[in-house]
Amino acid sequence: MFEFDWTRSRGDADLSQPVPGNLQVPGQPGAVPAPNILTPQPAEEPGEPDTLPEQTPAAEPQRVKRTKQGINKKGDLNSIKELGQLSIPQTKTNIHCLPIVGQIEGHIVLPPQNKTTKYEHLIPQLVALEENPEIEGVLIVLNTIGGDVEAGLAIAEMVTGMSKPTVSLILGGGHSIGVPVAVAADYSFIAETASMTIHPIRLTGLVIGVPQTYEYLDKMQDRVVNFITRHSKVTEEKLRELMFRTGELARDIGTVLIGKDAVECGLINEVGGISAAVRKLNQLIGERKELQGGFIQ
């Protein structure tokens, strides 16, 4: 049952004491502000704190933004996994590093345990580098055992057809079809301990049974020889002599050139490391700018 306060209803209540919610004239003793009847106030639940605790980083979406101090970890890890490239450090540069490592993969997909460089990844990158106005030079770093002949020649032709300066640097090894890629750059370097294997084209595990197969391989061999001799100082006679030399490679014919040997035969321009390669590339970039400035004037 509800009880009604007859005293308050008759106006006999002591108005000298403030009554919550009682509308009184402002300025009078015991006056309290009138409640805001237009804006409903949400009722506080018992035990609920006034302020919510700060959310922990675990409650936020798993997004990593690129900042001056940090990197986009997800994007960089994908770049390493898919393309073998890393976009750090975050300094702005006009030189792009293009690594060619492992085995150059061509028309046949190699087993997953093989370290490969896919030519369908490199060709779009070279096109983008040619079109990017912020990139003024390309540094090609090689540590490859060779691979698909046509894929290697396709990469080499793309490199030599670029209008921007290019410099190649062989670290570890630049064997087989990696040789045309190395000499395709405007200037080539080889580390003192790096090696290059010069050998003729061969079909592993297959026996040449018809004259047409031999003629095809001979034409393929001529394509490689002509490309190397056009883009280096080695003569065709010297290159073929290195290819068909016997007694140096076990169970095979060819020659292994180490460091300065590749320079002395005219295959590579200079023995040097990363600092020499970058310095030479900056020099070529400066010469290109001067040439373009002369044409503009």
The proportion of residues forming helix, as a percent range, comes to 25-40%
CATH class: Alpha Beta
Structural class, from helix and strand content? alpha/beta
User: How large, in whole angstroms, is the Cα Rg?
Assistant: 38 Å
The total beta strand count reads 8
For this structure, the CATH topology is 2-enoyl-CoA Hydratase, Chain A, domain 1
Give an account of the 3D structure.
With 297 residues, this protein is of the alpha/beta class. It has one domain (78-296): Alpha-Beta Complex (2-enoyl-CoA Hydratase, Chain A, domain 1), CATH 3.90.226.10. It has nine helices and eight strands. It has helices at 6-9, 73-83, 119-131, 149-160, 178-183, 211-230, 236-243, 260-264, 274-296, and strands at residues 95-105, 116-118, 137-147, 166-174, 187-190, 195-198, 255-258, 270-271. The protein has a six-stranded parallel sheet with strand order 2-1-3-4-5-8, with helices on both faces. It has a two-stranded antiparallel ribbon with strand order 6-7. β3 (137-147), α4 and β4 (166-174) form a beta-alpha-beta unit. The model is unreliable at 6-11 and 59-71 (pLDDT under 50).
Task: Sum up the structure in keywords.
single chain; 297 residues; alpha/beta; 2-enoyl-CoA Hydratase, Chain A, domain 1; six-stranded parallel beta sheet; two-stranded antiparallel ribbon; 8 strands; globular
Short description, anyone?
The protein has a single domain (78-296), classed as 2-enoyl-CoA Hydratase, Chain A, domain 1 (Alpha-Beta Complex), CATH 3.90.226. It has nine helices and eight strands.
